Structure formats: structure tokens, C-alpha cells
Task: structure prediction
Amino acid sequence: MRIDLDLLRRTPAYSFAEAAHYLGVPKATLRAWCVGQTYADRRGIRKTLRPLIRLDGAPSEGLSFLNLVESHVVAAIPRDHVIQLPTMRRALDYVVKRIENARPIATARFGTHGVDLFVAELGRLASVNRDAQARIAERVRGHVDLVEWDDGGLPIRLYPFTRRGESGHAPMPIVIDPRVAFGRPVIVGRAVPTAVLADRFKAGDRLNDLARDHDVPPEAIEEALRCQLN
Result:
């Protein structure tokens, strides 16, 4: 049976709560990236901020794999009083025009051309100095490097951070692949979801027993449990 990979990548498969857990970001922050925000300005006038990420389905359906990858890259950008959602949106609009792609973050080209364009424009809009821009660019590239791209330049695998607070290159024993286990995190080379391993661990199975059953190092089981339980 031939797998329609493009359809798999674009089909909503992750609730906001689930995706936020995998990405290590607050659910409310993720929703703001994907749905936008409504707020009142100083005069009490209601305004709406456009989302950074275009969902492949309705908000009630959650995120697709492409949306998950886009959010993973966006998560590298510091979230503080200087760099806010409107600034990020304007910087991304600039990259869309320069790269001529409506979804540049979901392409391999973002890693080779888009990061510098995005960070430079972000720095200009937010008055961020060159040293800070360099640090942001390094963080974004660290996230992009954890995405594996196919020959067409679209994401095919995401190696999520398994420890909260990570921003650089992480251990990569865990992978999210839309073709495996319905896109749930699994140990690299094994189709067993991290959720199954976590359930067995909580039921009393020992870490070494899980490692032996699945013929993987205990360290891989530890990362799987961190991915699911942290």
C-alpha cells in the first residue's frame, strides 16, 4: 500500500495539549502561535494578532506534523518583552516575501537561507543588537538541525527535545515520524511509542527490563520516559 506522505504531513494529528507537551512550551503560547490572539489596546479597542503558523485544519482538530515542525522551530525564539508575537509575525512576513514561500519554516530552505533573513529582520524590528541576534540564530539553527528533510525539502522526521530547557543539539534516540505509530514519539529504529513504555514503567516494569525487551540501551528508555513523563 502506497503511503500518501504529503497527506500524512498535513493531516491534523496532535491536540494542542499533546503538541505543547512534546515541544516543551505552554499550551496557551502554542495556541497564540497557531490561532492568534485577541487583546484590548490602551483605548480599550479590541484587536486581533495574526497567527505565526497556518494550521492545516480547524483549531479544534489541532496540529499537523508540518505544524508541529513549524512550532518546534518557532520555539527557539526567546519569548520576552522585547520579541513579541507581532514582531515575530512581521519578521516572518518579510521572509515569506524574500523566499517566495508561504510556509518557509516548513522547508529545508529556511535552514540554509531563511534563518539569517528572519533573525536580521527580527533584530531590526525589535532593536536587538548583533550579539543577541547571533545567539538567537544559533538557537534557531539548533532546532532546525533536529528536523530531517526529504529530497523535496519538506520535513520527514523530528527529533524532539526530551529534557525541558534544552535549546541546542539534543540526544536523538527519540523520533517523531508521521509514517510510524501514527506520528507518536518512538525510539529510533523501534515502532514502540514512548507512551507505551511510560505506561509499562508506571505499572512497575523496570528500566533494564524494558531495554532488554526492545533491544535498546537503557539510556534510550530513559530518554523515552523523559519525553513522555516530563
